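Thread: quick sanity check before group meeting

JM: Hey all, I'm pulling together slides for Thursday and realized we never actually wrote out the predicted structure for the chain we discussed last week. Dropping the sequence here so it's in one place. If anyone has concerns about the input, flag it before I start.
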Amino acid sequence: TPNNNGINDAWRVYADPSCFTDVSIRIFTRSGELIREFDHLGYQWDGSVDQAMAPDGVYVYVVRMRFTNSAQWYEKAGHITLLR
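JM (edit): ok, ran it. Output follows.
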């Protein structure tokens, strides 16, 4: 609910940055259009697309990170429901 009330105004991935390298976080519309991509854990998505608020709905995220000092990758996908 990104409505500037201080509660759930942004979505982000919580992880210890010292445990992961090569971070890729992507957010898609339900139809598969990539709307946001970032490569660090500090980024927070505020529900905007091209500096305008995205419409209410369901968005898909894909997180891919490589463990530090390892060739092993962690990948997680899920959904974000955006409501105002």
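AS: nice. The chain is about 0% helix and 50% strand. The beta strands are 20-29, 34-38, 48-49, 52-53, 57-67, 73-82.
JM: adding both to the slides.
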